[in-house]
Known about the structure:
seven-stranded mixed β-sheet
Amino acid sequence: MRPFRDWLSAEFRRGENYLDLAAGSGDSLGIYPSEVSPVASDFSFSMLRVLKAKAPVPLIQAEATELPFRARAFAGITAIGLVEYIPVPRVLLSEISRVLKDNGWLAITISQPNFLNLLRNFSGSRLHYYSIEKFSQLAAGQGFRLVHSNKTLLQCQLLFQKSE
């Protein structure tokens, strides 16, 4: 999460709305400074219960590809550990673009195709993998420009900005 904190350190504005999409147990909330309170959304009601016990943030149960928010509601969105579970990322990116303000940012991770990630398929999920180049092309088709990228053993951390 360190690259995201470094990249976004000057991007947060008091009074703006932020979304932690697929918040899970809330680990990615560490990206957000204390002066902002993001909305946390997850498909899993049980994960939201775990998160409720850990962090006092607004919680919304929602499918990431059908968000219950108005257009251009958020100045920034985090989506950590989500893309590999989405079979059609274009739909996800389109929905994120809809709820993100013009010039807003998207901090997202993707899992790259490698041996360790391929082993994760044995956990019972069908995971989807992308290179930085492939995912950046998909994102560009939805109006996003890649600003920063960082590659680790299991994932790539990407920061995009939405065009006007």
